[in-house]
Design brief:
Blueprint (H helix, E strand, L loop, with lengths): L2 H15 L1 H13 L1 E2 L1 H8 L3 H13 L3 E5 L3 E5 L1 H5 L4 H12 L1 H13 L2 E2 H12 L9 H14 L2 E3 L2 E3 L8 E3 L10 H9 L10 E4 L1 H20 L2 H17 L10 E2 H9 L5 H5 L1 H11 L4 E5 L5 E4 L1 H21 L1 H13 L2 E2 H8 L3 H13 L4 E6 L10 E6 L2 H29 L1 H20 L3 H8 L4 H35 L4
Helix pairs in contact: 1-2, 1-20, 2-4, 6-7, 7-8, 8-9, 8-10, 11-12, 12-15, 16-17, 16-20, 16-23, 17-19, 20-23, 21-22
């Protein structure tokens, strides 16, 4: 755990859960694992507030506990970083399953875990007066079952007591798609939810979303490099991979070209792909950034998806972009040269990069300072009567460079979060006033009040106030977009770390 990660974790906890949970999270991050008594002693918070904070962290799977002689709590920093990825989860749901799936996942993310009955009734009651949503309990139930079947939501672990211990442990359970009765749901809408007999809890399955994100990155990379037909063929190969291989396997099981031809025929809007599947497989193998390789000749050819190699190639592209944005195109040229040559001396860098010696040395040393490249000292054999001469070989350690890029991303996320908080604080009064005006106007429109009355309410925001608040909103939108882009980079780096070195 690094200093940059600690700052980002602290910012996220403060933004989502408040100052008290942030203090407890900071204490756990700093000391690793601690008991409740030790947290109370070091933070100076009342015991009840510490217990409530830990309950919140455990509920959202942001902390874990280990029970030996005493119960010690430990912060789950990686899950805290997922909080900034929530908008991407919701966008994925809306694009694949529609707005009803988005509402179900949003409510489940807010509650951390919930029974199916309470979840669906809560969503239905929340949006029942919204005529644009036009929600239906039957459609909501069908959407929930579709999400459970596809693995986007799963059953939450259950607490069990083992070996006579008084401290329960969480045991994962297999997800069974529920058989929900619409009549029970309709009855629950008109009765007290506390009396609900449903005791099976559900939570969001982040790994399923992450597989979608990884596949999208690979498909988009192939589409940009070749064309849309090649991207579609890559998608079919990934779908075939899930039938016979682990989702995070280094390489998939071989898929026969004849099976891929049959799959391509089912894609009705790709006639060019139907006619030239073999050609596209050849192009993917030779020019597809090594995402696939030919593994045999049976069945017209056997092809495997190289997921680890794909993660490495995508990481290299991210590092190239990072160096270009941070140090310029000339530094990126040096970085690509060192990576392509594996090991190279300083003099050879200057010759091949075609840059002035002084500028080339400066950029090389800057890359070294940023830990994006490494240097390996070697000693030449001594000549007759002479002393041994040391030479220095520059090279790229992809694992170390990935860690350096992750630190840069975390630093940027922290800075974006601070600027965003400062902007909200500076315009808090205006933003709050605008929210109240919008809420009042929305209620008036729902009630069908005259436009003149609505205009009178809107005019309570003066032109200078409107100008200031619109500027603040533009800045906050830009900062939010920047945070999501940084999260995409962090996700790509985490995909690389997911595979063994």
């Amino acid at each position: 755990m690094t200093h940059q990660l600690g700052r980002v974790v602290s910012q996220i906890l403060g933004r989502h859960f408040g100052e008290i949970v942030q203090q407890v999270g900071n204490d756990l991050f700093m000391y690793g694992s601690k008991t409740i008594g030790m947290i109370v002693k070091t933070t100076g918070l009342p015991r009840t507030q510490v217990i409530e904070s830990l309950r919140t962290l455990l509920k959202f799977d942001l902390a874990t506990f280990e029970a030996d002689v005493t119960v010690e709590y430990k912060l789950n920093s990686e899950n805290i970083l997922l909080l900034i990825r929530y908008p991407r989860y919701l966008l994925q749901m809306k694009s694949k399953y529609g707005s009803e799936a988005e509402m179900i996942v949003e409510e489940l993310l807010q509650q951390a875990s919930c029974t199916a009955t309470v979840l669906l009734v809560t969503v239905m009651n929340k949006y029942k007066d919204d005529k644009e949503k036009n929600l239906n309990i039957v459609n909501l139930k069908d959407t929930f079952i579709s999400l459970a079947t596809a693995g986007y939501i799963q059953q939450a672990p259950v607490a069990e007591l083992k070996d006579g211990s008084e401290i329960p442990i969480l045991v994962p359970v297999a997800t069974i798609v529920p058989d929900l009765d619409v009549r029970d749901l309709m009855q629950a809408m008109t009765s007290n939810l506390a009396d609900c007999k449903d005791n099976t809890y559900w939570k969001v399955n982040y790994d399923r979303f992450h597989l979608d994100f990884r596949d999208d990155m690979m498909i988009k990379a192939i589409t940009r490099r070749i064309d849309e037909n090649a991207g579609e063929l890559m998608r079919l190969m990934l779908e075939q991979m899930y039938l016979s291989s682990s989702a995070w396997a280094v390489e998939s099981s071989p898929a026969a070209a004849c099976d891929l031809r049959d799959l391509a025929l089912r894609v009705h809007d790709r006639p060019l792909l139907h006619a030239h599947v073999d050609h596209y497989l050849k192009v993917l193998e030779e020019n597809g950034a090594s995402f696939i390789r030919r593994a045999g000749d049976a069945g017209g050819g056997q092809y495997v998806v190289r997921t680890k190699r794909a993660a490495e190639q995508l990481l290299e592209a991210l590092l190239d972009h990072t160096v270009t944005e941070r140090l310029g195109s000339k530094a990126a040229r040096i970085f690509r040269l060192i990576r392509s040559k594996k090991y190279i001396e300083e003099e050879d860098i200057q010759k091949n990069a075609m840059l002035p010696n002084k500028e080339c040395k400066e950029l090389t040393y800057k890359l070294l300072e940023e830990h994006l490249i490494s240097v390996q000292p070697m000693r030449k054999a001594a000549s007759a009567g002479g002393s041994a001469k040391a030479i220095y070989l520059y090279h790229v350690k992809l694992y170390d460079a990935a860690h350096a890029a992750r630190e840069l991303c975390l630093r940027a996320v922290h800075n974006v979060s601070r600027v965003s908080s400062a902007t909200r604080a500076a315009h808090a009064r205006l933003l709050d006033k605008q929210r109240r005006v919008r809420s009042i106007v929305h209620g008036m429109r729902v009630r069908g009040e005259p436009q003149q009355n609505i205009d009178d309410v809107l005019e309570t925001l003066t032109p200078p106030e409107l100008s200031a608040v619109s500027g603040a909103e533009r800045r906050l939108r830009a900062l939010s977009a920047a945070e999501l882009e940084l999260d995409r980079a962090l996700f790509l780096i985490s995909c690389y770390f997911a595979f063994p070195r």
